[in-house]
Amino acid sequence: MIATVLTVIGTGVGVLQPLLVMRVIDTAQAGGIPLWLVGALLGLFVGQAIIDTIGHYLLERAGQGILLSLRRRLIGHLLALRVQIFDTRRIGDLISRANTDTTVVREAVAYSFTSVITNLIGVVGAIALMVWLNVWLFLLVLAVVAVAGVIVLSALSRIRAVSEQGQASVGGMTADLERALVAIRTVRANRAELRETERIGDHAAGAYQAGLRMAKLDSVIAPAMQLAVQGSVLVVLLAGGVLVARGSVSLGSLVAFLLYATYLVMPLSALIESAATIQRGLGALSRVNAVFALPREDDDSVPPAERAGGGERLAAAAASTPTPTPTPTPTSTVTVTGDGDRSAAIELRDVRFAYTATPVLRGVSFQVPRRGHIALVGASGAGKSTVLELVERFYDPDEGLILFAGRDVRSFSRSSARTWVNLVEQNTPVLHGTLRDNIVYAMPDAGEDEIAQVVATAGLRDLVDRLPDGLHTPVGDHGVLLSGGERQRVAIARALLPCPAVLLLDEPTSQLDAVNERALTLAMRRIAAERALLVIAHRISTVRAADRIVVLDEGRVIAEGTHDELMATSAFYRGLATAPPTRPRAATQERPARDEHPPAGPFGPPPGGGDGPVGPLSPSGRRRAGRAGRRAAVG
């Protein structure tokens, strides 16, 4: 506000200067120049310079403040979006909107709108004084400006669309560059540098083409405004010179009018430039608003004091409050009344869910006790990781209920529910920073004793002792300086630190060697004695260690029991347990597009045995290929 006021004052001071110039010239022709008049003119020049300097700084500061506020709001919104948004949106494009687009919006809001106000004042003041000095000269200048204005307006109408195209190309380029840099080792290993360069270059070429179209429009606007300036000066000099020669106008009035003609055209040029900048800003703003239109998770955040031990508070609330009776959705076939089983940490009741049209879970029901190790097994695509994502409330079930300590999970905010559970994904990320930064991510104020305990539990003690700066050693971007097994154990330590009531593990031993797997298995036993463990397991050794096993097939629970019980009663489980070993797939979500049946061997190799995946070059792979070939020959 102050910046705008100062800029307006500076504009007003500038409008007064030609009048003083006229007075000085006319007084000089009469035989003398009063010193006070010269002093006043110099004072106006100096005053305007000071005011403009202060106003420019304040405008710059206001612009940076607007940019900061917009970016903070946008970043907060991005981090609060529903998880499914990130299944389809490109991360690099979202980053571009928070970075490049917000800068363009700042230019439009902070500078252009203020410029419109101040330059309008300058234009109105110049017009009024030009009409007062000589209306006929003003009409001549107006005719020249009108011709230039028609040309400019024809170009302005196209700037916004071109700006949107350019910003979209920059967003695509950022997204593809982020994709390539994150997977730089894969790019190098597959000799794909040239292909990625061409792919990213295509987006850069799109931005280049949009830039050329913008340059064409600018090349129309700039000469048109130059025409207005030069044409106005020329018309005023010619017509005004004739009037001065005839004695109709004084020389001082002509000089003042000439200055006002410049003051008229220059603010008009600035207005046109502001209009062009605003059009560019509107193009960028539409991309920013598209992000704000994306749905957020409908919850508050948990205060820092509630992050640790939130499970105990949730359990206390569950013990004192009955389970609400859910209102079935129009398509729901399940109605549950009364209290849930409060002895269970988690209970799923006839849970159904689909990412798109094809169901992934088809009526899943089972319980996870307050303590103990529950293993979730099944073929790829059976719905195992989807169960964990529903429990973590990344998604909500389409039908059925998920209960925490006997209460419908929907009676808690998502953030509060996540104090009850903590998820370790199979390919869980390690963040840029130190080892300690990653471990205390959920509890930045954790004590050293707490950190030491989870470091020991996750089997990271040897790593910490080996690193040059211990816990304060940087781990690199995405944990690149750690091995796969070390990253997995860091993630487990991070999940253990807040002491959740239920720990969700998606194949925690997938990247551990035999020695570390045995150590982690012992740690899991200690954890299971104090809290609940729900573990997606592929290795038979991990499955054997479970207190209870839940078998999923095509989105349904088909068997439950211990390993020995299931080996005796479930042919499907026996097939999984005795099939040749394969490595688990890397993805953590089962998508409905996959039409997968139980493959041979979802369990990975046990410690010390079972080399590599089954493939066309492995013995079992060659046997299958041979049988397929024989069948084809017979057919």
Automatic annotation (TrEMBL):
Coiled coil: none
PROSITE patterns: ABC_TM1F, ABC_TRANSPORTER_1, ABC_TRANSPORTER_2
Location within or outside the cell: Cell membrane
Ranges annotated as biased composition (Low complexity): 313-322, 577-590
Annotated membrane topology: Multi-pass membrane protein
Pro residues: bias regions: 599-608
Keywords: ATP-binding, Cell membrane, Membrane, Nucleotide-binding, Transmembrane, Transmembrane helix, Transport
Keyword Transmembrane: yes
CDD domains: ABC_6TM_LmrA_like
GO terms assigned for molecular function: ABC-type oligopeptide transporter activity; ATP binding; ATP hydrolysis activity
A cellular-component GO term for this protein: plasma membrane
Domain ABC transmembrane type-1 residue range list: 1-280
Ranges that cross the membrane: 33-51, 108-129, 135-156, 220-245, 251-272
Domain of life from the UniProt record: Bacteria
Keyword Transmembrane: yes
Region described as Disordered: 299-338, 577-635
Chief location of this protein within or outside the cell: membrane
Biased composition (Basic residues): 621-635
Domain ABC transporter as annotated: residue spans: 346-579
Similarity section: Belongs to the ABC transporter superfamily. Lipid exporter (TC 3.A.1.106) family.
PANTHER family: ATP-BINDING CASSETTE SUB-FAMILY B MEMBER 10, MITOCHONDRIAL (PTHR43394:SF1), ATP-DEPENDENT PERMEASE MDL1, MITOCHONDRIAL (PTHR43394)
Stated name of the protein: ABC transporter ATP-binding protein
Biological source species: Candidatus Frankia alpina
